[in-house]
TrEMBL record:
The modification 4-aspartylphosphate is found at D54. One of its GO terms (molecular function) is DNA-binding transcription factor activity. May play the central regulatory role in sporulation. It may be an element of the effector pathway responsible for the activation of sporulation genes in response to nutritional stress. Spo0A may act in concert with spo0H (a sigma factor) to control the expression of some genes that are critical to the sporulation process. Keywords: DNA-binding, Phosphoprotein, Transcription, Transcription regulation. This is Stage 0 sporulation protein A homolog. Gene3D superfamilies: 3.40.50.2300, Homeodomain-like. It comes from Eisenbergiella tayi. Residues 321-419 form the HTH araC/xylS-type domain.
Amino acid sequence: MNILLVDDEVAVIQILKKAVCWEDLGINEVFTAYNAQEAKRIVTQESIQIIISDIEMPQENGISFLTWVQEEYPDIVNIILTGFPDFNYAKDAISIGVFKFLLKPIVFKELKAVVEEAVQNIREEQKREEQRRYGEYYEENRGKTEKIFYRDLLSEEILPFADYMDKEIVRRGMQKEDLELDNLVLLPLTGKESKADKGSVFYFALENIAEELFPETVMLEYNGDMIWLVKKGKQKEDIEEMSRVFLGKVSRYLKYELYAYYTKELRLEEAAQRYRMLKEVSRQYFRKGQRIYYGDQWTGSIMEEALSGNGRSGAGNELIRSLREYLEQHYNESINRKDVEELVHMNQDYLNRSFKCATGYTLMEYVQHFRILKAKEYLADMQKSISEIGGLVGYESPPYFSKIFKKCTGITPAEYRSSLSESGRCT
């Protein structure tokens, strides 16, 4: 965000430019002009969001200049700075939509507060404009934008935290109730089909069959496999029966034997974790003659087997859920496998195997994964430094935090924050 300072007094410009830490106020670059003509040239050539202008200037005064700005660049926020507390000036300022009216000598505390308020107003307006654009595009391209949303959900580009997700849905101009899911079905592709280019005839044929049979479902390609999503309350049929009908059509028309791995009772925040679980199940679970598999049931049975081996019985999936909640609550503390093993009184090999089947990660991998997700969430807050964020997620050494973050994401924390800023997702 850039600001333009306009005053015919050189001393005033120099004081304003040097005495205020503009970067702390959210200003990237400060432009200066000593008369209205020079100011108009800068406004025309540069990207200016805020103007602070004196009123009394030679040739053309500030009111005339800001009237021109309001007519030509109505989105610019205008602030008047003057040594003349004249009521008529105030009336003129109000008539042309001036944001604030400040008096000389400058009270820097007041100036900072006014600029901070202006920056906040601009950011809120930018968000509203972005939401409006997203909303219009969403209505015109609903199918395409929903697929983009679900891909970002599965890749955790959209972080799996309820508050973050709600804000992202609003930012994209979408409605949460239109996106909520009942089922996620993984349709693993093998052989040449898994290597087919995105947008290939084979992918298109699968999407076409699904949409013809069940129009309210969403079929998309992700990581070389097909993902089939059933929206909440949109289908009366049981997902297993839907899968049976779909696989039959694919076998008949495409001469291809697909296998379906599905999950039920799905919340949007759990989509990525459930996908990883189904991917793990698809690698390990296969029975000759069976083509449809209930992933939650299988991961639960693995944990049940481990529990019964210790002379215990119980709900396997509930224990997995409790383990995840424990790790997510203590992610920023020092955790090792022995601590977790003692917590649930299970052999760590059984425990690790069961946990990986349900999440796609070993226990310690999951802790690291969750730390990086929380770091991404914190990096959206520009008030927090990167070294502070490292400490918040359990990495006391800033260089080590940056090293782990880059290993997991391919970019540094600073580069990730920069990408958030460019897309308007920083706060």
